Queue: 2 jobs
Job 1
Amino acid sequence: MRIKVINPNTTFSMTEKIAAAARTVAAPGTEILCTSPTMGPVSIEGHYDEAVSVIGLLEEIRAGEAEGVDGYVIACFGDPGLMAAREAARGPVIGIAEAAMHAASMIATGFSIVTTLARTKIIARHLVEVYGMQRFCRRIRASDLAVLDLEDPKSNARALIIRECRRAIEEDEAGAIVLGCAGMADLAGDISRTVGAPVVEGVTAAVKFVEALVGLGLSTSKLGDLAVPIVKPYRGALSALAPEARAPNVPPTQARVRS
Protein backbone atom coordinates (compact mmCIF):
# COMPACT_ATOMS: atom_id res chain seq x y z
CA MET A 1 0.00 0.00 0.00
CA ARG A 2 1.00 3.64 -0.45
CA ILE A 3 0.61 6.09 2.44
CA LYS A 4 1.14 9.79 1.89
CA VAL A 5 2.44 11.59 4.99
CA ILE A 6 1.87 15.34 4.68
CA ASN A 7 3.77 17.85 6.80
CA PRO A 8 1.54 20.92 6.38
CA ASN A 9 4.37 23.36 7.05
CA THR A 10 7.11 24.24 4.57
CA THR A 11 10.21 23.41 6.61
CA PHE A 12 11.60 20.59 4.52
CA SER A 13 14.20 19.45 7.05
CA MET A 14 11.29 18.63 9.34
CA THR A 15 9.57 16.78 6.50
CA GLU A 16 12.65 14.60 6.10
CA LYS A 17 12.68 13.84 9.84
CA ILE A 18 8.99 12.92 9.72
CA ALA A 19 9.59 10.67 6.71
CA ALA A 20 12.39 8.83 8.49
CA ALA A 21 10.18 8.20 11.54
CA ALA A 22 7.31 6.95 9.37
CA ARG A 23 9.54 4.55 7.46
CA THR A 24 10.94 2.99 10.64
CA VAL A 25 7.51 1.55 11.50
CA ALA A 26 6.02 0.94 8.05
CA ALA A 27 5.30 -2.71 7.32
CA PRO A 28 7.07 -4.50 4.47
CA GLY A 29 5.23 -3.57 1.31
CA THR A 30 4.12 -0.17 2.61
CA GLU A 31 5.52 2.74 0.63
CA ILE A 32 5.76 6.04 2.49
CA LEU A 33 5.42 9.17 0.38
CA CYS A 34 6.30 12.18 2.54
CA THR A 35 5.77 15.70 1.35
CA SER A 36 5.14 19.33 2.26
CA PRO A 37 3.12 21.95 0.38
CA THR A 38 5.02 24.35 -1.84
CA MET A 39 3.41 27.31 -0.08
CA GLY A 40 2.45 28.16 3.46
CA PRO A 41 3.97 28.84 6.90
CA VAL A 42 7.38 27.49 7.89
CA SER A 43 5.85 26.38 11.19
CA ILE A 44 2.32 26.05 12.54
CA GLU A 45 1.91 27.67 15.93
CA GLY A 46 -1.59 29.09 16.07
CA HIS A 47 -5.04 29.24 14.52
CA TYR A 48 -3.96 31.59 11.71
CA ASP A 49 -1.04 29.35 10.71
CA GLU A 50 -3.35 26.36 10.70
CA ALA A 51 -5.97 28.05 8.53
CA VAL A 52 -3.41 29.17 5.94
CA SER A 53 -1.71 25.75 5.90
CA VAL A 54 -4.91 23.93 4.97
CA ILE A 55 -4.84 25.22 1.37
CA GLY A 56 -1.47 23.60 0.66
CA LEU A 57 -2.53 20.48 2.55
CA LEU A 58 -5.60 20.04 0.34
CA GLU A 59 -3.48 20.46 -2.77
CA GLU A 60 -1.39 17.53 -1.55
CA ILE A 61 -4.54 15.46 -0.93
CA ARG A 62 -5.77 16.20 -4.45
CA ALA A 63 -2.42 15.15 -5.88
CA GLY A 64 -2.50 11.96 -3.81
CA GLU A 65 -5.95 11.07 -5.11
CA ALA A 66 -4.73 11.46 -8.68
CA GLU A 67 -1.79 9.16 -7.83
CA GLY A 68 -4.00 6.46 -6.28
CA VAL A 69 -2.68 6.83 -2.75
CA ASP A 70 -4.29 4.43 -0.24
CA GLY A 71 -4.33 6.65 2.84
CA TYR A 72 -2.94 9.80 4.41
CA VAL A 73 -1.34 11.09 7.59
CA ILE A 74 -1.60 14.77 8.52
CA ALA A 75 1.69 15.38 10.33
CA CYS A 76 0.86 18.40 12.49
CA PHE A 77 -0.42 18.07 16.05
CA GLY A 78 -3.25 20.52 15.42
CA ASP A 79 -4.65 18.08 12.83
CA PRO A 80 -5.38 21.03 10.50
CA GLY A 81 -7.90 20.43 7.74
CA LEU A 82 -8.63 16.88 8.89
CA MET A 83 -12.33 16.84 8.05
CA ALA A 84 -11.85 18.69 4.76
CA ALA A 85 -9.17 16.16 3.82
CA ARG A 86 -11.56 13.32 4.63
CA GLU A 87 -14.15 14.83 2.30
CA ALA A 88 -11.58 15.02 -0.48
CA ALA A 89 -9.97 11.58 0.05
CA ARG A 90 -11.33 8.14 -0.65
CA GLY A 91 -8.97 6.31 1.69
CA PRO A 92 -8.50 6.92 5.43
CA VAL A 93 -6.98 10.18 6.66
CA ILE A 94 -5.52 10.22 10.18
CA GLY A 95 -4.26 13.23 12.13
CA ILE A 96 -1.27 12.68 14.39
CA ALA A 97 -2.93 14.18 17.48
CA GLU A 98 -5.91 11.90 16.96
CA ALA A 99 -3.64 8.87 16.51
CA ALA A 100 -1.35 9.63 19.44
CA MET A 101 -4.15 10.26 21.93
CA HIS A 102 -6.02 7.11 20.97
CA ALA A 103 -2.85 5.02 21.11
CA ALA A 104 -1.95 6.43 24.54
CA SER A 105 -5.45 5.73 25.84
CA MET A 106 -4.96 2.06 24.95
CA ILE A 107 -1.77 1.64 26.99
CA ALA A 108 -2.39 3.88 30.02
CA THR A 109 -5.31 5.09 32.09
CA GLY A 110 -4.00 8.63 31.84
CA PHE A 111 -1.58 10.59 29.68
CA SER A 112 -0.16 14.09 29.57
CA ILE A 113 0.62 15.98 26.38
CA VAL A 114 3.96 17.79 26.12
CA THR A 115 3.80 20.40 23.39
CA THR A 116 5.74 23.45 22.18
CA LEU A 117 4.59 27.03 22.80
CA ALA A 118 2.06 27.72 25.56
CA ARG A 119 -0.40 29.22 23.07
CA THR A 120 -0.79 25.83 21.37
CA LYS A 121 -2.18 24.31 24.57
CA ILE A 122 -5.59 25.76 23.71
CA ILE A 123 -5.60 24.00 20.33
CA ALA A 124 -4.56 20.73 21.97
CA ARG A 125 -7.28 21.11 24.63
CA HIS A 126 -9.87 21.59 21.93
CA LEU A 127 -8.72 18.38 20.21
CA VAL A 128 -8.84 16.48 23.52
CA GLU A 129 -12.52 17.43 23.73
CA VAL A 130 -13.27 16.70 20.06
CA TYR A 131 -11.72 13.23 20.35
CA GLY A 132 -13.45 12.43 23.64
CA MET A 133 -10.17 12.13 25.51
CA GLN A 134 -11.03 14.22 28.59
CA ARG A 135 -11.14 11.10 30.75
CA PHE A 136 -7.58 10.18 29.76
CA CYS A 137 -5.77 13.51 29.39
CA ARG A 138 -4.30 14.51 32.74
CA ARG A 139 -2.68 17.73 31.61
CA ILE A 140 -1.28 19.62 28.63
CA ARG A 141 2.22 20.93 29.27
CA ALA A 142 4.15 23.49 27.23
CA SER A 143 7.91 23.31 26.88
CA ASP A 144 7.85 26.93 25.59
CA LEU A 145 9.84 25.90 22.54
CA ALA A 146 9.19 27.37 19.12
CA VAL A 147 8.61 24.63 16.57
CA LEU A 148 11.73 25.59 14.65
CA ASP A 149 13.83 25.18 17.81
CA LEU A 150 13.35 21.47 17.21
CA GLU A 151 15.32 21.85 13.98
CA ASP A 152 18.23 23.65 15.66
CA PRO A 153 20.89 21.20 16.93
CA LYS A 154 22.24 23.97 19.19
CA SER A 155 18.95 24.42 21.06
CA ASN A 156 18.19 22.77 24.39
CA ALA A 157 14.92 21.40 23.05
CA ARG A 158 15.48 17.80 24.12
CA ALA A 159 16.31 18.78 27.70
CA LEU A 160 13.25 21.02 28.01
CA ILE A 161 10.95 18.32 26.66
CA ILE A 162 12.41 15.71 29.00
CA ARG A 163 11.94 18.08 31.94
CA GLU A 164 8.24 18.42 31.17
CA CYS A 165 7.86 14.67 30.62
CA ARG A 166 9.35 13.98 34.06
CA ARG A 167 7.07 16.56 35.64
CA ALA A 168 4.10 14.94 33.91
CA ILE A 169 4.96 11.56 35.42
CA GLU A 170 5.63 12.95 38.90
CA GLU A 171 3.02 15.70 39.20
CA ASP A 172 0.24 14.55 36.85
CA GLU A 173 0.65 10.83 37.61
CA ALA A 174 0.58 10.27 33.86
CA GLY A 175 1.12 6.70 32.75
CA ALA A 176 2.16 7.75 29.25
CA ILE A 177 3.38 10.85 27.46
CA VAL A 178 2.05 12.18 24.17
CA LEU A 179 4.49 14.38 22.26
CA GLY A 180 2.58 17.34 20.86
CA CYS A 181 4.49 18.21 17.70
CA ALA A 182 5.46 16.33 14.54
CA GLY A 183 8.91 17.91 14.89
CA MET A 184 9.45 15.65 17.90
CA ALA A 185 9.03 12.51 15.78
CA ASP A 186 12.66 11.48 16.23
CA LEU A 187 12.68 11.84 20.03
CA ALA A 188 10.09 9.36 21.32
CA GLY A 189 12.30 6.31 21.81
CA ASP A 190 15.12 8.22 23.45
CA ILE A 191 12.78 10.10 25.80
CA SER A 192 10.92 6.92 26.73
CA ARG A 193 14.18 5.25 27.76
CA THR A 194 15.22 8.35 29.70
CA VAL A 195 12.01 8.89 31.69
CA GLY A 196 10.98 5.25 32.02
CA ALA A 197 7.46 5.61 30.61
CA PRO A 198 5.76 4.98 27.25
CA VAL A 199 6.13 7.98 24.97
CA VAL A 200 3.77 8.18 22.00
CA GLU A 201 4.39 10.38 18.99
CA GLY A 202 1.69 10.69 16.42
CA VAL A 203 3.49 10.21 13.10
CA THR A 204 4.35 6.58 13.71
CA ALA A 205 1.04 5.87 15.45
CA ALA A 206 -0.90 7.35 12.52
CA VAL A 207 1.03 5.30 9.96
CA LYS A 208 0.12 2.10 11.77
CA PHE A 209 -3.54 3.12 12.07
CA VAL A 210 -3.70 3.84 8.34
CA GLU A 211 -2.11 0.47 7.59
CA ALA A 212 -4.69 -1.25 9.79
CA LEU A 213 -7.66 0.52 8.22
CA VAL A 214 -6.49 -0.11 4.66
CA GLY A 215 -5.70 -3.72 5.56
CA LEU A 216 -9.27 -4.10 6.83
CA GLY A 217 -10.58 -2.76 3.54
CA LEU A 218 -12.02 0.34 5.21
CA SER A 219 -12.14 3.66 3.41
CA THR A 220 -13.54 7.04 4.45
CA SER A 221 -17.34 7.11 4.60
CA LYS A 222 -18.93 9.16 1.86
CA LEU A 223 -22.25 9.56 3.64
CA GLY A 224 -23.51 12.78 5.20
CA ASP A 225 -20.94 15.43 6.02
CA LEU A 226 -18.03 13.41 4.63
CA ALA A 227 -19.61 13.06 1.19
CA VAL A 228 -17.43 14.29 -1.64
CA PRO A 229 -17.32 18.12 -1.88
CA ILE A 230 -20.15 19.66 -3.89
CA VAL A 231 -19.07 20.46 -7.42
CA LYS A 232 -19.09 24.21 -8.01
CA PRO A 233 -16.76 26.85 -9.47
CA TYR A 234 -14.14 28.51 -7.29
CA ARG A 235 -12.88 31.96 -8.26
CA GLY A 236 -9.53 33.67 -8.28
CA ALA A 237 -6.32 32.09 -7.03
CA LEU A 238 -8.23 29.13 -5.58
CA SER A 239 -9.94 28.14 -8.82
CA ALA A 240 -7.64 25.11 -9.18
CA LEU A 241 -9.02 23.71 -5.92
CA ALA A 242 -12.62 23.59 -7.17
CA PRO A 243 -14.15 20.14 -6.53
CA GLU A 244 -14.42 17.84 -9.52
CA ALA A 245 -17.22 15.41 -10.30
CA ARG A 246 -16.47 11.80 -9.38
CA ALA A 247 -18.22 8.65 -8.28
CA PRO A 248 -18.80 9.06 -4.52
CA ASN A 249 -18.31 5.47 -3.35
CA VAL A 250 -15.36 4.29 -5.40
CA PRO A 251 -12.55 3.08 -3.09
CA PRO A 252 -8.92 4.12 -3.68
CA THR A 253 -7.43 2.45 -6.70
CA GLN A 254 -4.79 0.76 -4.56
CA ALA A 255 -6.88 0.01 -1.45
CA ARG A 256 -7.07 -3.72 -1.03
CA VAL A 257 -5.68 -6.27 1.35
CA ARG A 258 -2.23 -7.35 0.17
CA SER A 259 -0.89 -10.80 0.87
Job 2
Amino acid sequence: MRLAVINDKSAEKLSVWTSSGYIPVESINHLFDRRWPCDMLELIRSGKLAVLNEWYLSGGREKLEEMHAHATASDLSRCAPPYRHPSKIWGIGLNYADHAADLSAKTPTGIPGSFMKPDTTIIGPGDTIQIPALSNKTTAEAELGVIIGRQCKNVSQENWLDVVAGFTTIIDMTAEDILRQNTRYLTVSKSFDTFFSFGPQLVTPDEIAEVSKLKVSTVINGQVHAENVVANMTFSPSFLVSFLSRVMTFRPGDVISTGTPGAVVIKDGDIVECHIDGFEPLKNPVTDLKVEH
Protein backbone atom coordinates (compact mmCIF):
# COMPACT_ATOMS: atom_id res chain seq x y z
CA MET A 1 0.00 0.00 0.00
CA ARG A 2 1.13 3.53 -0.77
CA LEU A 3 -0.10 6.42 1.36
CA ALA A 4 0.31 10.16 0.88
CA VAL A 5 -1.05 13.38 2.36
CA ILE A 6 -2.77 15.46 -0.34
CA ASN A 7 -3.49 19.19 -0.18
CA ASP A 8 -7.17 19.53 -1.05
CA LYS A 9 -8.74 22.99 -0.82
CA SER A 10 -6.32 24.08 1.95
CA ALA A 11 -6.91 20.85 3.90
CA GLU A 12 -4.38 18.02 4.13
CA LYS A 13 -5.98 14.62 3.57
CA LEU A 14 -4.42 11.25 4.22
CA SER A 15 -5.01 9.20 1.08
CA VAL A 16 -4.32 5.79 -0.45
CA TRP A 17 -2.81 5.57 -3.92
CA THR A 18 -4.71 3.80 -6.73
CA SER A 19 -4.18 3.69 -10.47
CA SER A 20 -6.87 6.39 -10.78
CA GLY A 21 -5.35 8.67 -8.18
CA TYR A 22 -5.49 9.11 -4.43
CA ILE A 23 -8.55 8.08 -2.37
CA PRO A 24 -8.93 9.98 0.94
CA VAL A 25 -9.11 7.71 3.98
CA GLU A 26 -12.11 9.73 5.17
CA SER A 27 -13.95 8.62 2.00
CA ILE A 28 -12.92 5.02 2.60
CA ASN A 29 -14.25 5.26 6.16
CA HIS A 30 -17.57 6.64 4.93
CA LEU A 31 -18.09 4.16 2.12
CA PHE A 32 -16.97 1.05 3.98
CA ASP A 33 -18.10 1.95 7.51
CA ARG A 34 -14.59 2.09 8.95
CA ARG A 35 -12.98 4.24 11.64
CA TRP A 36 -9.37 4.50 10.51
CA PRO A 37 -7.51 7.66 11.59
CA CYS A 38 -7.31 10.28 8.84
CA ASP A 39 -3.94 11.63 9.98
CA MET A 40 -0.78 9.75 8.93
CA LEU A 41 1.05 10.03 12.24
CA GLU A 42 -2.08 9.16 14.21
CA LEU A 43 -2.64 6.16 11.92
CA ILE A 44 0.88 4.91 12.64
CA ARG A 45 0.78 5.62 16.37
CA SER A 46 -2.61 3.98 16.81
CA GLY A 47 -1.39 0.72 15.31
CA LYS A 48 -4.16 0.92 12.72
CA LEU A 49 -1.83 1.20 9.72
CA ALA A 50 -1.25 -2.57 9.82
CA VAL A 51 -5.01 -3.15 10.04
CA LEU A 52 -5.70 -0.84 7.10
CA ASN A 53 -3.00 -2.57 5.07
CA GLU A 54 -4.41 -5.99 5.90
CA TRP A 55 -7.80 -4.82 4.62
CA TYR A 56 -6.13 -3.40 1.52
CA LEU A 57 -4.32 -6.66 0.78
CA SER A 58 -7.43 -8.77 1.45
CA GLY A 59 -9.65 -7.25 -1.23
CA GLY A 60 -9.56 -3.57 -0.35
CA ARG A 61 -7.19 -2.80 -3.20
CA GLU A 62 -9.70 -4.04 -5.75
CA LYS A 63 -12.52 -2.10 -4.10
CA LEU A 64 -10.50 1.13 -4.16
CA GLU A 65 -9.63 0.65 -7.82
CA GLU A 66 -13.37 0.90 -8.56
CA MET A 67 -13.76 4.22 -6.72
CA HIS A 68 -12.83 6.43 -9.69
CA ALA A 69 -15.25 9.19 -8.71
CA HIS A 70 -13.56 9.63 -5.34
CA ALA A 71 -9.98 9.76 -6.65
CA THR A 72 -7.80 12.86 -6.63
CA ALA A 73 -5.32 13.11 -9.50
CA SER A 74 -1.83 11.85 -8.69
CA ASP A 75 -0.29 15.31 -8.89
CA LEU A 76 2.88 15.26 -6.80
CA SER A 77 2.80 19.05 -6.51
CA ARG A 78 -0.24 18.68 -4.26
CA CYS A 79 1.47 16.35 -1.79
CA ALA A 80 2.41 17.52 1.71
CA PRO A 81 5.01 15.84 3.92
CA PRO A 82 3.59 12.62 5.40
CA TYR A 83 3.56 14.34 8.81
CA ARG A 84 5.35 17.19 10.53
CA HIS A 85 6.13 16.18 14.11
CA PRO A 86 7.93 12.85 14.54
CA SER A 87 9.48 12.42 17.97
CA LYS A 88 12.88 11.75 16.37
CA ILE A 89 14.67 12.11 13.05
CA TRP A 90 17.89 10.09 12.94
CA GLY A 91 20.36 10.91 10.19
CA ILE A 92 23.22 8.65 9.13
CA GLY A 93 26.38 10.17 7.74
CA LEU A 94 28.99 8.71 5.37
CA ASN A 95 27.11 5.43 4.95
CA TYR A 96 28.48 4.91 1.42
CA ALA A 97 32.24 4.86 0.90
CA ASP A 98 31.89 7.04 -2.21
CA HIS A 99 30.22 9.80 -0.21
CA ALA A 100 32.87 9.64 2.48
CA ALA A 101 35.48 10.17 -0.24
CA ASP A 102 33.61 13.29 -1.38
CA LEU A 103 34.25 14.81 2.04
CA SER A 104 37.80 13.41 2.33
CA ALA A 105 36.59 11.46 5.34
CA LYS A 106 36.93 7.87 6.45
CA THR A 107 33.88 5.63 6.34
CA PRO A 108 32.80 4.92 9.94
CA THR A 109 33.26 1.38 11.21
CA GLY A 110 31.61 -0.32 14.17
CA ILE A 111 29.29 2.55 15.02
CA PRO A 112 27.48 4.50 12.29
CA GLY A 113 28.03 8.23 12.02
CA SER A 114 24.76 9.54 13.42
CA PHE A 115 23.03 12.83 14.13
CA MET A 116 19.55 14.06 14.94
CA LYS A 117 17.43 16.77 13.34
CA PRO A 118 14.57 18.86 14.73
CA ASP A 119 11.11 18.68 13.20
CA THR A 120 11.36 22.36 12.25
CA THR A 121 13.58 21.24 9.34
CA ILE A 122 10.67 19.39 7.71
CA ILE A 123 9.25 20.35 4.32
CA GLY A 124 7.38 18.31 1.73
CA PRO A 125 7.34 17.73 -2.02
CA GLY A 126 7.51 20.94 -4.00
CA ASP A 127 8.33 23.07 -0.98
CA THR A 128 11.33 25.36 -1.28
CA ILE A 129 14.71 24.49 0.19
CA GLN A 130 16.23 27.68 1.59
CA ILE A 131 19.99 28.15 1.55
CA PRO A 132 20.55 30.11 4.76
CA ALA A 133 22.29 33.44 5.08
CA LEU A 134 24.91 31.78 7.30
CA SER A 135 26.04 29.33 4.59
CA ASN A 136 27.89 29.79 1.31
CA LYS A 137 28.04 26.08 0.50
CA THR A 138 24.95 24.00 1.14
CA THR A 139 24.51 20.47 -0.18
CA ALA A 140 21.48 18.26 -0.83
CA GLU A 141 21.51 14.51 -0.41
CA ALA A 142 18.98 11.92 -1.62
CA GLU A 143 18.35 9.13 0.88
CA LEU A 144 16.11 6.17 1.64
CA GLY A 145 13.97 6.81 4.70
CA VAL A 146 12.80 4.16 7.17
CA ILE A 147 9.65 4.96 9.16
CA ILE A 148 9.21 3.16 12.47
CA GLY A 149 5.78 1.64 13.06
CA ARG A 150 5.65 0.92 16.78
CA GLN A 151 7.37 1.62 20.06
CA CYS A 152 10.35 -0.71 20.37
CA LYS A 153 13.69 -1.23 22.07
CA ASN A 154 16.59 -3.62 21.41
CA VAL A 155 15.26 -4.85 18.07
CA SER A 156 17.13 -7.78 16.51
CA GLN A 157 18.41 -7.43 12.96
CA GLU A 158 16.44 -10.52 11.96
CA ASN A 159 13.16 -8.95 13.06
CA TRP A 160 13.75 -5.38 11.95
CA LEU A 161 10.88 -5.30 9.42
CA ASP A 162 8.44 -6.18 12.20
CA VAL A 163 8.82 -2.64 13.57
CA VAL A 164 8.88 -0.80 10.22
CA ALA A 165 5.74 1.01 9.07
CA GLY A 166 7.18 1.82 5.68
CA PHE A 167 9.79 3.54 3.56
CA THR A 168 9.98 6.93 1.90
CA THR A 169 12.17 9.25 -0.15
CA ILE A 170 14.21 11.92 1.61
CA ILE A 171 16.32 14.94 0.66
CA ASP A 172 18.61 15.94 3.51
CA MET A 173 20.58 19.20 3.52
CA THR A 174 23.91 20.18 5.06
CA ALA A 175 25.57 23.57 5.42
CA GLU A 176 28.86 21.99 4.40
CA ASP A 177 30.99 25.07 4.90
CA ILE A 178 29.86 25.25 8.52
CA LEU A 179 30.54 21.54 9.04
CA ARG A 180 34.03 21.81 7.58
CA GLN A 181 34.96 24.47 10.14
CA ASN A 182 34.59 21.94 12.94
CA THR A 183 32.99 18.48 13.05
CA ARG A 184 31.34 19.49 16.31
CA TYR A 185 29.19 21.85 14.26
CA LEU A 186 27.35 18.89 12.69
CA THR A 187 24.09 19.59 14.51
CA VAL A 188 24.12 23.25 13.48
CA SER A 189 24.97 22.40 9.86
CA LYS A 190 22.03 19.99 9.66
CA SER A 191 19.34 21.91 11.53
CA PHE A 192 18.38 24.95 9.48
CA ASP A 193 14.72 25.36 8.56
CA THR A 194 13.78 23.51 5.32
CA PHE A 195 16.77 21.13 5.65
CA PHE A 196 14.71 17.91 5.61
CA SER A 197 12.26 17.07 2.84
CA PHE A 198 10.38 13.78 2.85
CA GLY A 199 7.51 12.15 1.02
CA PRO A 200 5.47 12.11 -1.09
CA GLN A 201 4.60 8.51 -0.22
CA LEU A 202 4.90 6.09 2.64
CA VAL A 203 5.40 2.71 0.98
CA THR A 204 4.63 -0.32 3.14
CA PRO A 205 7.26 -3.09 3.30
CA ASP A 206 5.13 -5.60 1.38
CA GLU A 207 5.44 -3.37 -1.70
CA ILE A 208 9.23 -3.84 -1.82
CA ALA A 209 10.64 -7.17 -2.94
CA GLU A 210 14.17 -6.58 -1.63
CA VAL A 211 15.24 -3.41 0.19
CA SER A 212 18.94 -4.08 -0.44
CA LYS A 213 18.41 -3.93 -4.21
CA LEU A 214 16.88 -0.44 -4.21
CA LYS A 215 18.88 2.16 -6.15
CA VAL A 216 19.05 5.63 -4.61
CA SER A 217 19.94 8.62 -6.80
CA THR A 218 20.69 12.27 -6.05
CA VAL A 219 19.45 14.27 -9.05
CA ILE A 220 20.17 17.94 -9.77
CA ASN A 221 18.41 19.87 -12.55
CA GLY A 222 17.40 16.63 -14.24
CA GLN A 223 20.88 15.08 -14.19
CA VAL A 224 21.95 12.19 -11.96
CA HIS A 225 24.73 13.43 -9.69
CA ALA A 226 25.30 10.23 -7.71
CA GLU A 227 23.63 6.85 -7.35
CA ASN A 228 24.20 3.60 -5.52
CA VAL A 229 22.28 0.59 -4.24
CA VAL A 230 21.30 -0.01 -0.63
CA ALA A 231 23.37 -3.21 -0.61
CA ASN A 232 26.50 -1.04 -0.79
CA MET A 233 25.75 0.78 2.44
CA THR A 234 28.33 0.26 5.18
CA PHE A 235 25.49 -0.09 7.67
CA SER A 236 22.35 -1.72 6.27
CA PRO A 237 18.85 -0.52 7.20
CA SER A 238 18.41 -3.67 9.31
CA PHE A 239 21.59 -2.86 11.24
CA LEU A 240 20.56 0.79 11.69
CA VAL A 241 17.14 -0.10 13.10
CA SER A 242 18.68 -2.64 15.45
CA PHE A 243 21.64 -0.51 16.57
CA LEU A 244 19.75 2.73 17.07
CA SER A 245 17.01 0.91 19.00
CA ARG A 246 19.72 -0.06 21.48
CA VAL A 247 20.55 3.63 21.93
CA MET A 248 17.04 5.12 22.22
CA THR A 249 13.54 3.73 22.43
CA PHE A 250 11.87 4.16 19.07
CA ARG A 251 8.38 5.60 18.93
CA PRO A 252 5.88 5.20 16.09
CA GLY A 253 6.61 7.69 13.32
CA ASP A 254 10.31 8.07 14.10
CA VAL A 255 12.37 8.44 10.92
CA ILE A 256 15.80 7.10 9.99
CA SER A 257 17.46 8.79 7.02
CA THR A 258 19.88 6.04 5.99
CA GLY A 259 22.61 7.94 4.16
CA THR A 260 23.26 9.27 0.69
CA PRO A 261 25.16 7.95 -2.32
CA GLY A 262 26.41 11.49 -2.89
CA ALA A 263 25.73 15.09 -1.92
CA VAL A 264 25.45 17.86 -4.50
CA VAL A 265 26.13 21.56 -3.92
CA ILE A 266 22.91 23.49 -4.52
CA LYS A 267 22.41 27.08 -5.57
CA ASP A 268 19.57 29.52 -6.15
CA GLY A 269 17.18 28.29 -8.85
CA ASP A 270 18.21 24.62 -8.75
CA ILE A 271 15.78 21.71 -8.67
CA VAL A 272 16.97 18.79 -6.56
CA GLU A 273 15.37 15.35 -6.54
CA CYS A 274 15.54 12.00 -4.76
CA HIS A 275 14.89 9.01 -7.02
CA ILE A 276 14.50 5.50 -5.61
CA ASP A 277 13.44 2.48 -7.65
CA GLY A 278 9.69 1.91 -7.38
CA PHE A 279 9.00 5.17 -5.52
CA GLU A 280 7.47 8.40 -6.73
CA PRO A 281 10.30 10.96 -6.98
CA LEU A 282 10.72 13.66 -4.39
CA LYS A 283 11.46 17.08 -5.90
CA ASN A 284 12.21 20.47 -4.33
CA PRO A 285 13.22 23.86 -5.77
CA VAL A 286 16.04 25.84 -4.17
CA THR A 287 16.28 29.48 -3.22
CA ASP A 288 19.23 31.28 -1.66
CA LEU A 289 18.17 33.70 1.06
CA LYS A 290 21.22 35.83 0.25
CA VAL A 291 19.95 36.45 -3.31
CA GLU A 292 17.46 39.22 -4.01
CA HIS A 293 14.41 38.03 -5.94
